[in-house]
Amino acid sequence: MEKQTRNPAVLVIGAGMSGILLGIKLREAGITDITIVEKGDGVGGTWRENTYPGVSCDVPAHMYAYSFEPFVGWDDRFAEGAQIRQYFEQTADKYGITELVRFNEEVTAAQYRDGRWQVTTSKGDALSVDFIVAATGILHHPSVPDIPGLSDFAGTAFHTARWDHKLDFSGKRVGVIGTGSTAAQVIPALVNQGVPVSIFQRTPQWMFPRPDAHYSPLYKKTLARLPFLATLIGRLWAWYYAQMFAKMVIGKPLQFWITDRIVRRNLEKAVANPELRAKLTPDYRVGCKRLVLASDFFEAVQQPHCELITDDVDHVEPDGIVTRDGNKHPLDVLVLATGFHHLNFMRPMDLTGRDGIHIETAWQQQCLSYRSVTIPGFPNFFLMTGPNSPVGNFSVTRVAEVQADYMMKLIRRWQQGEFDAIEPRPDAADSFLSRIKANMTGTVWTGGCQSWYLDPTGTPALWPFTFGQWVEEMREPNLADFDVYRSTSVSVNS
Asked: N or C: which terminus of the chain has fewer CB atoms within 10 Å of its end residue's CB?
């Protein structure tokens, strides 16, 4: 006779890629008390919020789809944002996840008290749950630069994640601050529409030519007839990225040499003007910042109605930007392609763990976690794509699947009555982080640049080993690294 298991109450924060995934995994485990709270009006996460012109994925779509839910209808190898959002919407509907979501609602506070999480939402509702999964992602708090006079700009100004779709760009002079992955998509889209664009480049980027392709009706019809091919293609791309980019960023000589040679030749071939090429050439190692996959940025920047400005922005005036050299650049629209506060994770949520410890206190110096998914002092609390996840130039969906399986193995132990609460031991988390730091030397992330990968201590919040090693280490939780508690609050391991 099968052993009866407990049914935990689980709160998932966020209905993006990882939130939908957790909902599916929880339902597969027979868990029925699931609540998903989503601050937006629909599922899709970053693909719901980022709708700027040219938005697309920077890993192949077949690799970005869930491994258990391949999609045969991708229009392009690197799918556009609207189709990716549609994929997640359809998947959420198919697996019955959409009906679990409370939209236009945020978790404002969560306190661990009397063996459970007591939660308050923006609508004033109170929830009491056994587990919380923060599937909040890392690209949802826009980073707005502190530029003097920015609030005085008389034209239209917005962050790329808050794109103004009502704006008519006809006859408008547009300034774009930033040249990262988002800017590399936005700028060609605007320039190709004939919009005059001034690019304010803070730091040049290494750009890998994106091997995009538009899929024909015959291709999609073939996959529809033989859907296992979509799974196979996704696995092949995942293998390639794991062997190429994931090894390049941790400093493997062959992969680094190949990537370095490709991006340098790409720049030399695409930009003939030596003066312009010099402005577009980074002074740091390839991969130190996230490698940008783009095939049309260099073409766009050489168009007559596109201007590359490398002098630092000094301040903003009502009708334009003044750079440090004293030149004024008249503008009607200002687009901030300035990224996100990626280390916020679930914050600014008021999160209080065991014995009254607050997340801002626990993370005052750095975002300490154990294996990226659990935090000392915060029992039964899980993070998706947390600190030191291997997200550098890899599919975050594949990363999330490994983390979700790891979390579910811990939740199943709870279901079987092995414990009532679990949290990582502080020494295990410290040891994990020390090992991460000790092996950062030699990775490209220490290659002399300022990037969004770095935490407040200057340490890249990434994984310095191979992706295969990460998957292997995440295969089974090591309970010796955890404090587990019964309802009597007596530690089993201590």
From this structure: N
Decide if pLDDT at 490 tops 60.
no
Rounded to whole angstroms, the Cα distance separating 296 from 457 reads 36
CATH 3.50.50.60 in the chain: give the residue spans.
10-141+341-485, 150-206+251-336
User: pLDDT tens across 243-266, in order?
Assistant: 999 999 999 999 999 999 999 999
pLDDT(299) > 90: yes
Q: Are 347 and 341 in contact (CB under 8 A)?
A: no
Average pLDDT over residues 309-315: 96
Structure confidence at residue 448 (pLDDT)? 76
Q: Strands of 131-134's sheet, edge to edge?
A: 101-102, 34-37, 10-13, 131-134, 381-383
Which pLDDT score is estimated for 393?
Answer: 65
Residue 446 and residue 427: Cα distance in Å, rounded? 26
Both tokens of 237, joined, read 């791309």
* Residue 93 vs residue 137, higher pLDDT: 93
Task: Give me the residues paired with residue 482 across strands.
Answer: 424
Class of domain 10-141+341-485: alpha beta
- Identify whether 348 is preceded by a cis peptide bond (ω within 30 of 0): yes
Strand runs labelled E in 244-372: 292-293, 306-309, 313-317, 320-323, 328-330, 333-336, 350-352
Rounded average pLDDT over 424-451: 90
pLDDT of residue 492: 42
CATH superfamily name and code, 150-206+251-336: FAD/NAD(P)-binding domain (3.50.50.60)
| Residue-wise DSSP of 207-261 | EEPP---BPPHHHHHHHHHSTHHHHHHHHHHHHHHHHTHHHHTTT-HHHHHHHHH
The DSSP bridge partners found for residue 422 are: 484
Residues of the chain by 3-state class (helix, strand, coil), percent to 5: 35, 20, 50
